[in-house]
Design a protein that fits this description.
The chain has 225 residues and is an alpha/beta fold. It has one domain: Rossmann fold (3-Layer(aba) Sandwich). It contains ten helices and eight strands. Strand 1 (2-8), helix 1 (15-28) and strand 2 form a beta-alpha-beta unit. The chain is globular.
Protein backbone atom coordinates (compact mmCIF):
# COMPACT_ATOMS: atom_id res chain seq x y z
CA UNK A 1 0.00 0.00 0.00
CA UNK A 2 1.48 3.34 -1.08
CA UNK A 3 1.17 6.58 0.86
CA UNK A 4 2.32 10.14 0.32
CA UNK A 5 3.91 12.49 2.85
CA UNK A 6 3.23 16.17 2.22
CA UNK A 7 4.63 18.71 4.63
CA UNK A 8 4.67 22.47 4.67
CA UNK A 9 3.91 25.57 6.62
CA UNK A 10 0.26 25.52 5.47
CA UNK A 11 -0.12 29.17 6.41
CA UNK A 12 -2.96 28.55 5.61
CA UNK A 13 -3.92 25.30 3.87
CA UNK A 14 -5.76 26.22 0.66
CA UNK A 15 -7.55 24.64 -2.27
CA UNK A 16 -4.41 24.85 -4.41
CA UNK A 17 -2.65 22.46 -2.03
CA UNK A 18 -5.60 20.08 -2.06
CA UNK A 19 -6.19 20.19 -5.81
CA UNK A 20 -2.58 19.32 -6.56
CA UNK A 21 -2.22 16.46 -4.09
CA UNK A 22 -5.57 15.00 -5.12
CA UNK A 23 -4.15 14.84 -8.65
CA UNK A 24 -0.91 13.19 -7.46
CA UNK A 25 -2.86 10.71 -5.37
CA UNK A 26 -4.81 9.62 -8.43
CA UNK A 27 -1.87 9.52 -10.86
CA UNK A 28 0.36 7.45 -8.55
CA UNK A 29 -2.40 5.32 -7.08
CA UNK A 30 -1.64 6.39 -3.52
CA UNK A 31 -4.06 4.97 -0.97
CA UNK A 32 -3.26 7.58 1.68
CA UNK A 33 -1.72 11.02 1.95
CA UNK A 34 -0.53 12.44 5.27
CA UNK A 35 -0.32 16.22 5.56
CA UNK A 36 1.89 17.56 8.36
CA UNK A 37 2.36 21.24 9.21
CA UNK A 38 5.79 22.38 10.33
CA UNK A 39 5.86 23.39 13.99
CA UNK A 40 8.95 25.60 13.72
CA UNK A 41 9.75 25.98 10.00
CA UNK A 42 13.58 26.25 9.74
CA UNK A 43 13.39 28.28 6.50
CA UNK A 44 10.54 30.65 7.43
CA UNK A 45 10.31 33.86 9.43
CA UNK A 46 8.24 32.59 12.35
CA UNK A 47 6.86 36.05 13.14
CA UNK A 48 4.86 35.87 9.90
CA UNK A 49 3.50 32.38 10.52
CA UNK A 50 0.23 31.64 12.35
CA UNK A 51 0.56 29.59 15.55
CA UNK A 52 1.30 25.93 14.87
CA UNK A 53 -1.86 24.73 16.63
CA UNK A 54 -4.02 26.97 14.45
CA UNK A 55 -2.34 25.75 11.27
CA UNK A 56 -2.75 22.16 12.46
CA UNK A 57 -6.43 22.73 13.11
CA UNK A 58 -6.87 24.18 9.62
CA UNK A 59 -5.21 21.15 8.05
CA UNK A 60 -7.29 18.77 10.15
CA UNK A 61 -10.65 20.32 9.22
CA UNK A 62 -9.52 20.88 5.63
CA UNK A 63 -9.06 17.16 4.94
CA UNK A 64 -11.51 15.56 7.36
CA UNK A 65 -14.11 14.89 4.65
CA UNK A 66 -11.61 13.75 1.99
CA UNK A 67 -11.20 10.00 1.56
CA UNK A 68 -7.63 8.84 2.10
CA UNK A 69 -6.32 12.16 3.43
CA UNK A 70 -5.02 12.48 6.99
CA UNK A 71 -3.69 15.32 9.11
CA UNK A 72 -0.62 14.58 11.21
CA UNK A 73 0.77 16.63 14.09
CA UNK A 74 4.04 14.70 14.07
CA UNK A 75 6.15 17.87 13.88
CA UNK A 76 4.14 19.58 16.59
CA UNK A 77 4.86 16.70 18.94
CA UNK A 78 8.61 17.00 18.41
CA UNK A 79 10.68 19.71 20.07
CA UNK A 80 12.85 22.07 18.07
CA UNK A 81 12.89 22.92 14.34
CA UNK A 82 10.96 20.68 11.95
CA UNK A 83 13.47 18.74 9.85
CA UNK A 84 12.09 16.54 7.09
CA UNK A 85 14.53 13.67 7.54
CA UNK A 86 13.40 13.24 11.15
CA UNK A 87 9.77 13.18 10.05
CA UNK A 88 10.43 10.64 7.31
CA UNK A 89 12.16 8.28 9.73
CA UNK A 90 9.34 8.64 12.28
CA UNK A 91 6.72 7.73 9.67
CA UNK A 92 8.73 4.78 8.34
CA UNK A 93 9.45 3.42 11.81
CA UNK A 94 5.93 4.03 13.11
CA UNK A 95 7.56 6.15 15.82
CA UNK A 96 4.76 8.69 16.05
CA UNK A 97 3.22 9.84 19.31
CA UNK A 98 0.06 11.18 17.70
CA UNK A 99 -3.27 9.39 17.86
CA UNK A 100 -4.05 11.01 14.50
CA UNK A 101 -1.24 8.96 12.99
CA UNK A 102 -1.96 5.71 14.81
CA UNK A 103 -5.52 5.58 13.45
CA UNK A 104 -4.32 5.68 9.84
CA UNK A 105 -0.93 3.98 10.07
CA UNK A 106 -0.29 0.59 8.54
CA UNK A 107 3.11 -1.12 8.90
CA UNK A 108 2.85 -2.19 5.27
CA UNK A 109 2.77 1.37 3.95
CA UNK A 110 5.34 2.35 1.33
CA UNK A 111 5.98 6.08 1.65
CA UNK A 112 6.67 8.71 -1.00
CA UNK A 113 7.74 12.27 -0.20
CA UNK A 114 5.73 14.87 -2.12
CA UNK A 115 7.22 18.28 -2.77
CA UNK A 116 6.93 21.20 -5.16
CA UNK A 117 9.76 22.05 -7.53
CA UNK A 118 10.69 25.16 -5.50
CA UNK A 119 11.20 23.03 -2.39
CA UNK A 120 13.15 20.44 -4.38
CA UNK A 121 15.59 23.06 -5.71
CA UNK A 122 16.07 24.19 -2.09
CA UNK A 123 16.74 20.70 -0.76
CA UNK A 124 20.52 21.14 -0.63
CA UNK A 125 19.99 23.52 2.32
CA UNK A 126 18.01 20.91 4.30
CA UNK A 127 19.41 18.99 7.25
CA UNK A 128 21.05 15.72 6.16
CA UNK A 129 19.57 16.05 2.68
CA UNK A 130 21.73 13.19 1.43
CA UNK A 131 19.90 10.83 3.78
CA UNK A 132 16.53 11.85 2.33
CA UNK A 133 17.52 10.38 -1.05
CA UNK A 134 18.51 7.15 0.67
CA UNK A 135 15.37 6.95 2.77
CA UNK A 136 12.37 7.60 0.53
CA UNK A 137 11.24 7.94 -3.11
CA UNK A 138 10.43 11.55 -4.01
CA UNK A 139 7.63 12.89 -6.19
CA UNK A 140 8.46 16.37 -7.50
CA UNK A 141 5.32 18.27 -8.48
CA UNK A 142 5.69 20.63 -11.43
CA UNK A 143 2.83 23.11 -11.60
CA UNK A 144 1.60 23.63 -15.14
CA UNK A 145 4.88 22.27 -16.52
CA UNK A 146 6.40 25.57 -15.38
CA UNK A 147 9.91 24.30 -14.73
CA UNK A 148 10.38 21.41 -17.11
CA UNK A 149 12.39 18.27 -16.48
CA UNK A 150 15.73 19.51 -17.88
CA UNK A 151 16.54 21.95 -15.04
CA UNK A 152 15.74 19.21 -12.55
CA UNK A 153 18.04 16.81 -14.39
CA UNK A 154 20.85 19.37 -14.29
CA UNK A 155 20.24 20.08 -10.60
CA UNK A 156 20.26 16.40 -9.65
CA UNK A 157 23.44 15.77 -11.64
CA UNK A 158 25.29 18.75 -10.13
CA UNK A 159 24.07 18.78 -6.53
CA UNK A 160 22.63 15.35 -5.66
CA UNK A 161 24.38 12.54 -7.52
CA UNK A 162 25.76 11.91 -10.98
CA UNK A 163 24.54 8.33 -10.60
CA UNK A 164 20.92 9.22 -11.31
CA UNK A 165 19.66 8.23 -14.77
CA UNK A 166 16.60 9.79 -16.41
CA UNK A 167 13.89 7.70 -18.03
CA UNK A 168 11.99 10.37 -19.96
CA UNK A 169 9.14 8.04 -20.90
CA UNK A 170 8.43 7.29 -17.25
CA UNK A 171 9.45 10.79 -16.05
CA UNK A 172 11.61 9.17 -13.41
CA UNK A 173 15.22 9.33 -12.25
CA UNK A 174 16.69 6.07 -10.95
CA UNK A 175 19.88 5.30 -9.06
CA UNK A 176 21.59 2.05 -8.07
CA UNK A 177 22.03 3.06 -4.43
CA UNK A 178 19.51 5.88 -3.90
CA UNK A 179 15.72 6.08 -4.07
CA UNK A 180 13.99 7.14 -7.32
CA UNK A 181 12.86 10.67 -8.03
CA UNK A 182 9.55 10.89 -9.91
CA UNK A 183 8.36 13.93 -11.84
CA UNK A 184 4.64 14.75 -11.93
CA UNK A 185 3.20 17.59 -14.00
CA UNK A 186 0.31 18.81 -11.89
CA UNK A 187 -2.46 21.28 -12.77
CA UNK A 188 -1.64 24.97 -12.42
CA UNK A 189 -3.89 26.36 -9.70
CA UNK A 190 -3.33 30.07 -9.10
CA UNK A 191 -3.83 30.10 -5.35
CA UNK A 192 -1.15 30.78 -2.77
CA UNK A 193 -1.01 31.23 0.98
CA UNK A 194 0.55 34.67 0.42
CA UNK A 195 -2.44 35.68 -1.69
CA UNK A 196 -4.90 34.50 0.94
CA UNK A 197 -3.12 36.28 3.80
CA UNK A 198 -3.07 39.50 1.77
CA UNK A 199 -6.77 39.24 0.97
CA UNK A 200 -7.63 38.66 4.63
CA UNK A 201 -5.54 41.66 5.68
CA UNK A 202 -7.32 43.80 3.09
CA UNK A 203 -10.76 42.49 4.19
CA UNK A 204 -11.30 40.88 0.79
CA UNK A 205 -13.21 37.57 0.41
CA UNK A 206 -11.39 34.24 0.33
CA UNK A 207 -14.44 32.10 -0.42
CA UNK A 208 -13.51 29.30 -2.82
CA UNK A 209 -9.78 29.72 -2.15
CA UNK A 210 -9.77 27.65 1.03
CA UNK A 211 -12.07 24.92 2.38
CA UNK A 212 -15.11 26.37 4.14
CA UNK A 213 -14.01 25.04 7.54
CA UNK A 214 -10.58 26.64 7.09
CA UNK A 215 -12.21 29.97 6.27
CA UNK A 216 -14.28 29.68 9.44
CA UNK A 217 -11.16 29.18 11.57
CA UNK A 218 -9.42 32.17 9.99
CA UNK A 219 -12.42 34.33 10.80
CA UNK A 220 -13.02 32.92 14.27
CA UNK A 221 -9.39 33.31 15.38
CA UNK A 222 -8.87 36.57 13.51
CA UNK A 223 -5.79 35.22 11.74
CA UNK A 224 -3.68 37.17 9.25
CA UNK A 225 -5.00 40.61 10.17
Amino acid sequence: MDAGLFGGTFNPLHNGHLGIIKYVKQVFGLQKIFLFPSATPPHKCVTKVAPARDRMEMVKVGVEELDGFYASDIELKRKGPSFTIDTIEAFKNGNHKSDLFKKAHDPQLNFFLLMGSDAFFDITTWKKQELIFKAIPIIVMLRGNRTGIEPIASFIDEYISKGYKLNKKQARFTHKQLQPVHICNVPKIDISSTMIRARVKENRPIKGLVPVNVENIIKKKDLYK
